[in-house]
Write a sequence for this structure.
């Protein structure tokens, strides 16, 4: 028996819980708001808030993160269904991100990790086309992801890319309003559920079209002398359609699940990598020494080549450190993705009741001066000794999360980001707008699907090595 010992947190008011605290926290960016709130309550490793009827625990230290994502991983391996997405999910349209922990999740995850996000697929991008530099980073990563996930021959790809972009504007990350189901104050925050549904319908219609085209092409191929498509030539949609057709899985995915999984991979993949790249370029512009070093490396390792290919990447040691340091300072999912506690647990000595939504403040942890020297400074060299990595075992650095629900797209993302960044540095010289000093570059954040720059990064590009034109 005995009383429950909840983690410390702001005083709770009837009805609105701790919501009033957020109305007065200046920063609309939840990761900063949570960090402020934790500081004002004596910096507990686990902070407890009541938002409307939902209990919310925020882990803000490596030890607390380790307990949630490793020690008690299985009890925190589901995600809450946020209200604006609930109607779609109740119809069974659930992809990998929100599927409850269980047999279906395990299967979708296995398919994604093994078949779809393997390094083999990353290497199979046509290099000349993948580095069509000069296009905006978002368009570029969306393009690369589209090629791997759906098909680059999809007729309505422009429409699809626009819908995804609109989606990332609509879904303002996991805004606080998203976390509570029915309080009246909630409506004050959201009101986007209708638009989300419309967009969802639109994307499903586009997916139907992509699937039709896919099947038509397969039928056409099957009637040629060479016969069917070779498995290694399939894109992700092709693999999923084959699994759907041939069965053979313990829980056969419905067509709605196939579509939702594709959308999850696509939207999960492009926005995150694009924003990270934008932050990397921003940090390099603010830190000319690091830029010089990275460019010198790329130019010396690639001397004379027409463009960067996958095979060049493992020579680019400093470039990898630049991306690591960018992920430390700018984890684009600063609170990771929400988990839900599915059975009562003790974490850091506190009771976390079943049903609590659990966030991990990866942003606060990776900028904590208790674990990092000169924590706010951009210093890629700090990773030089190779002791700390983002693979989910060093809990002071978890931009991709950790444990069973850790990001399945990590390797894929690393591939895209290295390839694109190396290409940007190889082909171009980058300059700030005339008259701007490096330290004047604005770094204000804005919450979208991922945390991105509030103001566009406008740079002048001077060609050093011309980008080869695709045949
Ligand atoms: C810089 C790039 C990326 C970052 C920082 C990132 C970060 C994350 C994080 C923090 C999570 C939640 C992990 C957790 O709960 O412990 C996650 C989950 C996920 N990510 Fe990524 N991600 C990136 C790129 C990608 C890419 C390229 C894909 C796919 C093509 C992808 C697909 C997913 C999916 C499907 C999930 C949900 C997995 C599950 O719930 O089982 N991500 N990602």
């Amino acid at each position: 028996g005995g009383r429950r010992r909840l983690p410390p947190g702001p005083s709770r008011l009837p009805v609105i819980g701790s919501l009033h605290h957020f109305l007065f926290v200046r920063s609309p960016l939840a990761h900063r708001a949570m960090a402020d709130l934790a500081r004002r309550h004596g910096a507990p490793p686990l902070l407890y808030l009541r938002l409307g009827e939902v209990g919310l625990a925020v882990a803000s230290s490596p030890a607390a993160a380790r307990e949630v994502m490793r020690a008690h991983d299985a009890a925190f391996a589901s995600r809450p269904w946020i209200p604006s997405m609930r109607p779609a999910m109740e119809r069974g349209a659930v992809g990998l991100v929100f599927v409850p922990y269980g047999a279906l999740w395990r299967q979708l995850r296995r398919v994604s990790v093994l078949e779809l996000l393997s390094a083999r697929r990353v290497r199979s991008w046509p290099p000349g086309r993948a580095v069509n530099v000069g296009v905006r980073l978002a368009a570029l990563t969306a393009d690369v992801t589209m090629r791997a996930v759906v098909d680059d021959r999809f007729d309505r790809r422009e429409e699809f890319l626009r819908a995804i972009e609109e989606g990332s504007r609509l879904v303002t990350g996991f805004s606080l309003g998203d976390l509570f189901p029915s309080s009246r104050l909630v409506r004050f925050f959201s009101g986007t559920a209708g638009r989300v549904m419309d967009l969802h319908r639109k994307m499903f219609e586009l997916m139907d079209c992509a699937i039709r085209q896919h099947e038509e092409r397969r039928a056409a191929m099957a009637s040629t002398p060479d016969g069917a498509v070779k498995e290694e030539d399939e894109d992700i949609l092709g693999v999923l359609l084959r699994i759907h057709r041939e069965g053979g899985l313990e829980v056969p995915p419905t067509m709605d699940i196939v579509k939702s999984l594709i959308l999850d991979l696509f939207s999960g993949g492009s926005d995150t990598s694009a924003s990270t790249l934008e932050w990397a370029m921003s940090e390099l512009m603010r830190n000319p020494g690091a830029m010089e070093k990275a460019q010198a490396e790329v130019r010396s390792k690639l001397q004379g080549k027409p463009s960067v290919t996958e095979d060049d990447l493992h020579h680019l040691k400093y470039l990898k450190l630049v991306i690591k340091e960018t992920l430390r300072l700018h984890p684009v999912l600063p609170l990771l993705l929400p988990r839900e506690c599915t059975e009562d647990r003790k974490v850091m000595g506190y009771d976390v009741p079943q049903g609590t939504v659990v966030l991990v403040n990866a942003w606060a942890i990776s900028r904590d001066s208790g674990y990092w020297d000169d924590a706010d400074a951009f210093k890629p060299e700090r990773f030089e000794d190779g002791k700390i990595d983002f693979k989910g075992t060093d809990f002071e650095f978890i931009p991709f999360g950790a444990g069973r629900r850790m990001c399945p797209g990590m390797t894929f993302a690393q591939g895209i980001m290295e390839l694109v960044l190396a290409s940007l540095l190889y082909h171009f010289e980058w300059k700030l707008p005339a008259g701007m000093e490096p330290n004047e570059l604005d770094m204000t954040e804005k919450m979208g699907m991922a945390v991105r720059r509030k103001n566009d990064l406008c740079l002048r590009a001077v060609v050093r090595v011309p980008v080869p034109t695709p045949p």
In short: Confidence is low (pLDDT under 50) at residues 119-135, 172-190.
